[in-house]
Amino acid sequence: MTPTRLADLRKIATQYALAGMVAALALALGPAAAIPQTIETEAGPVRVETVAEGLKHPWGMVFLPDGRMLVTERPGTLRLVGADGSLSDPLSGVPEVVAQGQGGLLDVALDPTFITNKLIYLSYAEAGDDGVGTAVARGRLEDGGLTDLKVIFQQTPKVKGPNHFGGRLAFAPDGTLFVTLGDRFKFEPAQDLSSHLGKVVRINPDGSVPQDNPFIGQKDAQPEIWSLGHRNVESASIDPQTGKLWTLEFGPKGGDELNRPAPGENYGWPLVSWGTHYDGKDIPNPPTRPEFADAVRQWTPVISPSGATFYTAEPIPGWTSEAIPAWAGDLLVGGLSSESIVRLSIDDDKVTGEERIPLGVRIRNVVQGPDGAVYALTDEDNGKILRLTAENQ
After folding, report:
1. pLDDT tens-digit profile of 119-172?
2. Where does this protein have coiled-coil stretches (predicted)?
3. ∠131-134-140 over CA atoms, to 5°?
4. 86-121 as b/e, with b when 16 or more CB fall inside 10 Å?
């Protein structure tokens, strides 16, 4: 949960305190068949239990103020998940997606003023005349579906191929929306300012361009671009202490990266990388150059990062705390190939500690719940929502 979402939920906590208590009880009980397990961590034993299952390759998740969850399924379905683990029928009004390879229905986010306007945002792979590209749409969440759906961003150009869509959404404290965009496995366009491929972009909630974006007015540059030289960013979170954006991206064969994208900065892909190409060809050495921003942390072998959240360990008022206090302030990252949650302690833009929480399954996303617990999506045909809490609570 981003700090913006957390702050908005706090504002309305009194309206939902009773619903929160009921939902918290249901979350604690979970599905009748779920068997909790305990994992030893540096913080002590952590309890892992299944909250819901039966999801088809879930990708994005966000909590609603009443404790229900909105979850995307990559084949193109959006569902509500009850606190008791029940799955709704697919919601209507969802945009048509291209569910091929890594594409499909991707992330979901709440508008900063969701309590009054009921708007949600979806990223997805969208078809076009020349191929497929990442798009963002917003709609109003009503009973059973979305209304007033409007496409607010479309990646340019659309290209052929099933990989590297990016697609994470993160609202900044000023209300602007960051969208991560993969290079679509096309390499060179990540360095081309006339292309959205391999970029992080920043837009207003209605899709218009903030006038303080770094490439506003530059000839042939896409005005939405915030930073460039990215390969495939599938993790994005705002640090609640600084309000700054942090991202993680897939390297090629090695070289997954943690970055703090700054306006106008170039992160070097495909000219430099800490990894090598899958075909065995070297990427020019050295792995970084002075004109490019270097990664804060890189992983070889890779962790395959997908989804991330800065964890506050603070429940919403009215909810019984199920937090893991020792993890407060850390960045929690979903790991696909590492089948874990990667916990990073960060101080002064440097990683000062790291731990892997082994879960034995591909983790697609990690969020903080209103009860302060950690929730994780598993990437599988029978996708699950896992909840992590301190064993001694």
Report:
1. 999 999 999 999 999 999 999 999 889 999 999 999 999 999 999 999 999 999
2. none
3. 125
4. ebbeebebbbebbbeebbbbbbbbbbbebbeebbbb
More confident: 11 or 153: 153
**Token reading at 48:** 């892992």
d(CA 366, CA 381): 18
Q: What average pLDDT does this structure show over 82-105?
A: 97
Nearest to 273 by CA among 293, 251, 249, 300: 251
**Tokens 């998740």, located at residue:** 61
Cα 293 to Cα 296: distance, rounded to the nearest angstrom: 9
Tokens at residue 365, please?
């996303």
pLDDT digits (tens, 9 = 90+) for 221-232: 999 999 999 999
Q: Around Cβ 347, how many Cβ atoms within 10 Å?
A: 9
Is residue 383 a contact partner of residue 334, using CB atoms and an 8 Å limit?
Answer: no
> How many CA atoms are closer than 13 Å to the CA of 182, on its beta-carbon side?
30
Catalytic, 57? Answer: no
Q: Taking the chain, what is the end-to-end CA distance rounded to the nearest angstrom?
A: 22
pLDDT range class, residue 318, cuts 50, 70, 90: very high
Nearest alpha carbon to residue 63 among 71, 54, 55: 71
Q: Within its chain, how far is the Cα of 54 from the centroid? A: 21
* pTM score, whole prediction: 0.91
List the catalytic residue out of 57, 164, 196, 230.
164
Rounded mean pLDDT of the chain?
92
Q: 285-324: string of b/e by CB count within 10 Å (b at 16+)?
A: eebbeeebbebbbbbeebbbbbbbbbbbbbbbebbebbbb
309 to each of 35, 171, 187, 212, how far by Cα in Å?
26, 12, 28, 26
Highest CATH level, class, for 13-390: mainly beta
Closest CA relative to residue 270, chosen from 283, 255, 261: 283
Rounded mean pLDDT, 78-84: 96
Look up residue 98 and give its two tokens.
């291209």
